[in-house]
Amino acid sequence: MSRPRTLGELKVSRPAEPGPSGPGGRVSVREEMRRNLLRKLQAREPIFPGIVGYDDSVIPQIVNAVLSKHNMILLGLRGQAKSRILRSLTSLLDAASPVIAGCEISDDPFRPLCKRCRDLVAEKGDTTPVAWLSPDQRYVEKLATPDVTIADIIGDVDPIRAARGGFDLASELTMHYGLLPRAHRGIFALNELPDLAGRIQVGLFNILQEGDVQIKGYPVRLPIDVCMVFTANPEDYTARGKIITPLKDRIGSEIRTHYPTTIEHGVAITAQEAWTERRKDLVVPRYVREVVEGIAFAARRDKKIDRRSGVSQRLPISALENAVSNAERRALNAGESPVVPRISDVYAALPSLTGKFELEYEGELLGAENVARELIREAVGEVFSTYLGAVPFRQVVRFFEEGGTLRIREGSSSDEVLGQLQRVPEALEHGEALGVKPGDPAPFLAAAGEFVLEGLWAQKKIGRSDDRGFVAPERRTDTDLDMERLERLRKLKKQVN
User: Fold this and answer.
1) Could you state, in order of their start, the residue ranges of all structural domains in the chain?
2) Which regions of the chain are under pLDDT 50?
């Protein structure tokens, strides 16, 4: 069925809606979002598909804010899906919304706000042309930066338009509308609110409280209908204090986001976002996914990393993509299939880790690459404990204690690695816990065997040397440990001086 194309057709097909109304006697955008949200809740539909780990924390608070018809702000560190949540709010808008065709501020055909549309309706009446906007077209987003002006957000007088049209500068027809009026009857999202200059934040007062804007001091007010949503970093919000108090007071709901609280949630998010479905013969073992996710969890609690800056969820996403690419490159060079990433591929993904966190003083002394290697080792040890913590692997440890060595190069083919692993008793005997059976293709067995050795090294049951590969564990006396501590202290003092 075709949609109405004129105001007259619209009056016949869609009379003014009853209930709480905004401009023109029709429901406001926040009432529209509330109505559609209630319908979703009653139908048990997912509110925000693709948002993982917030079902019991953030999403209920957002639901309450929408049901309360509040403007809201999301507070959270980087990489906590704040922008994605804001963009998902468009799912609460109607599938199509009528506007006067060609209007800069998406005027309601039943009661236009701008001078141009009022004149058009007065002239053409029921033949006034009507267009339709999708939910995405009713969403306006702006990144707040210090150079943003009031004209960018609210609007300004356009002298060129005045000259070309022969209008007086005080005429409404000379107005150039900013982003906020252009979001009329939609959602206006402002990212990183603390970075917006204080004088610009003052300009948002009337919109949040009275719902209107005034451009360039002329007595022209536009009672715009808009849902305003913001994001901010909590450190900026509280410590730097760049959101002025009157503006904070006018924001209805303050909602704090967070990083995934469980490895399962983290793995699900990374699996959803990472580009790993690139070839049919690619298989990423579950334990490799958990190791990659464990790196982010380890980084978020590591004292050598600045917790105020946060560790974005982009870290495991980028790391997994990089590890898969390294495995893909190795498989192509070796001519093998399927492609199965190993722990050595995670170490090869260091370039995707070192730029994703800010270091504290101790971390700066160690260097980003060394810190990243420690994080990988810690993550491997934790995942190894989950899958194989109850297995003593005595024969593997004895092999190295008796002088055995095993060097696995990062670019070694699966057959080469498997040939090396078969020299080590028991190294391949517990693959069932990792989802690997004895008759599986070599890439699966090689990845599982390497994980066993990496896990034993992470738990300090065997050693590893850059030159010789996996070796016997290093036995250090208390005197050796004291000497190492003294040497570290000397280096720290030298750095300070």
Assistant:
1) 7-256, 263-478
2) 17-25, 237-241, 477
What pLDDT was estimated at residue 466? Answer: 74
Check the CA dihedral 239-243-249-251 and report its sign: negative
Instruction: Tell me which DSSP letter residue 426 carries.
Output: T
Nearest to 77, CA basis, from 379, 356, 271 = 356
Cα-Cα-Cα-Cα torsion 373, 375, 379, 382, nearest 10 degrees, comes to 110
Cα–Cα distance, 145 to 2 (Å, whole number): 43
Evaluate the CA torsion angle 352, 357, 360, 361 in order and state its sign: positive
For 17-70, how does the pLDDT look when each residue is reduced to its tens digit (9 = 90+)? 444 444 444 789 999 999 999 999 999 999 999 999 999 999 999 999 999 999
Q: How many helices (H) and strands (E) does the chain have?
A: 22, 13
pTM exceeds 0.70, yes or no = yes
Spell 107-127 as b/e; 16+ CB within 10 A means b.
bbbbbbbbebbeebbeeeeee
Chain segment 447-457, per-residue pLDDT in tens: 999 999 999 99
Note the CATH number of domain 7-256: 3.40.50.300
Structure confidence at residue 216 (pLDDT): 65
Q: Give the residue among 223, 200, 220 at the shortest CA–CA distance from 212.
A: 223
H or E, element range at 442: helix 442-458
Provide the token pair at 357: 């966190």
Strand partners of residue 464: 470
Whole-angstrom distance, CA of residue 158 vs CA of residue 177: 9
Q: CA 236 to CA 244: how far, in whole Å?
A: 12
